[in-house]
Write a structure and sequence with these properties.
Blueprint: H1 4-11, E1 23-27, H2 39-50, E2 56-61, E3 65-66, E4 69-72, H3 88-92, H4 101-110, E5 116-119, H5 126-135, E6 143-145, E7 148-149, H6 154-162, E8 172-178, H7 198-212, H8 217-220, H9 227-232, H10 240-247, E9 255-258, E10 262-263, E11 267-268, E12 271-274
Length: 275
C-alpha cells in the first residue's frame, strides 16, 4: 500500500496532461467475480495492464444509490461487503486502497448542477473493489466513489457526468460499474455459465448499436424503447452508471466493447471502453 503522505503530495494539485484518460463502463456481475479467475476478471486485469496508469480512480457504482449526490472524502475508504450468502473467502477480501480528500473536494467543485456532499462514512462497495482488485491488485492508486442520486432522471445523470470531463486531462480514470441488462428476479441459474433470454439479447444488441453509433438520446430515454428495455431495467441503479460513462465521451474518442456476454438469462456483462 502506498504511503499516504506521498500520495497527497502527488495528487494535491493534479496537473493537466496531454494524455486523455479513457472512460470505462464495467458490467460487474456477481460479487464472486472479485475472487474468481474467469473471462471477466481476466479482462479487468488486462485493462489494468494496458491503460495508462491513473493518478486516481472515481467509480460510479450501482450499489451507492442515495438521496442526493456525495463523493467519498476519507483518507482510507473501507471495503464494504454489501451482499450475503457467499463464501467466507469473499468476505475476507480487503482492498486497502487510499482515498484522496483533495480530489474529492475538486470533484465536488466541478459539479455545478447539484450540490455534492463530502462523505466520510461509505467506502468501496463491491461494484468498485471486485473489479479494481483485478485491475490494480497492489491497491496503491487512490479510489473515490461518486454516488447516484435516485431523485434525478437519466438525462440529469448524463449531463452531470459531462461536468467532470476536465478530470480526464488530469490522469483520473472515471468508471461506471453496473450492468446494462440486470433483472435478478428473472435469472435462470441453469444459464449462469452463459446465455440470455431472447428479449435480453435483443435489447442488449440495441443498446450496443446506439452506443457504437454515438446516439445517446434514446439511451437516456430508455423507458421509450419498449417492453424489453423495461424487463432489462426494472430498477435504474445498474443502468445509470453507463450514462455516466457516455456523458464523458468526447468527439475524438474511439469506443469499443468487451465482455459482451449474457449470463443467467437476464443479465449482461457487456462493457464499454471510451477513449
Amino acid at each position: 500500500m502506498a504511503n499516504l503522505s506521498t500520495i497527497r503530495q502527488m495528487n494535491a494539485s493534479l496537473p493537466v496532461q496531454d494524455l486523455l484518460m479513457p472512460v470505462l463502463f464495467i458490467g460487474h456481475g456477481s460479487p464472486m467475480n472479485g475472487i474468481e479467475t474467469n473471462a471477466f476478471s481476466n479482462s479487468w486485469a488486462e485493462l489494468g495492464r494496458t491503460i495508462p496508469v491513473p493518478k486516481a480512480v472515481i467509480v460510479v457504482s450501482a450499489h451507492w444509490f442515495t438521496n442526493g449526490t456525495a463523493v467519498t472524502a476519507m483518507d482510507f475508504p473501507q471495503t464494504i461487503h454489501d451482499f450475503g450468502g457467499f463464501p467466507q473467502a469473499l468476505f475476507d477480501l480487503q482492498y486497502p486502497a487510499p482515498g484522496d480528500p483533495a480530489l474529492a473536494v475538486e470533484t465536488a467543485g466541478l459539479i455545478s448542477s447539484t450540490k455534492v456532499e463530502l462523505d466520510h462514512d461509505w467506502g468501496l462497495d463491491h461494484g468498485a473493489w471486485t473489479v479494481l482488485q483485478h485491475m490494480f491488485p497492489l491497491a496503491d492508486i487512490p479510489i473515490l466513489q461518486l454516488s447516484i442520486d435516485y431523485r434525478k432522471d437519466p438525462r440529469a445523470h448524463y449531463e452531470m457526468a459531462a461536468e467532470l470531463v476536465a478530470l480526464r486531462r488530469k490522469g483520473v480514470l472515471i468508471m461506471g460499474s453496473g450492468n446494462m441488462v440486470h433483472n435478478l428476479r428473472m435469472m435462470n441459474w441453469s444459464m449462469i455459465d452463459g446465455g440470455g433470454y431472447d428479449w435480453a439479447l435483443d435489447i442488449n444488441e440495441q443498446f450496443k448499436q446506439l452506443i457504437m453509433n454515438g446516439d445517446h438520446r434514446p439511451l437516456m430515454a430508455y423507458q421509450q424503447l419498449g417492453k424489453a428495455a423495461m424487463l432489462a431495467i426494472p430498477t435504474p441503479e445498474h443502468y445509470l452508471p453507463l450514462l455516466y460513462a457516455l456523458g464523458l465521451q468526447l468527439p475524438q474518442d474511439q469506443v469499443s466493447l468487451f465482455n459482451d456476454q449474457a449470463v443467467g438469462g437476464s443479465l449482461t456483462m457487456t462493457s464499454v471502453r471510451i477513449g
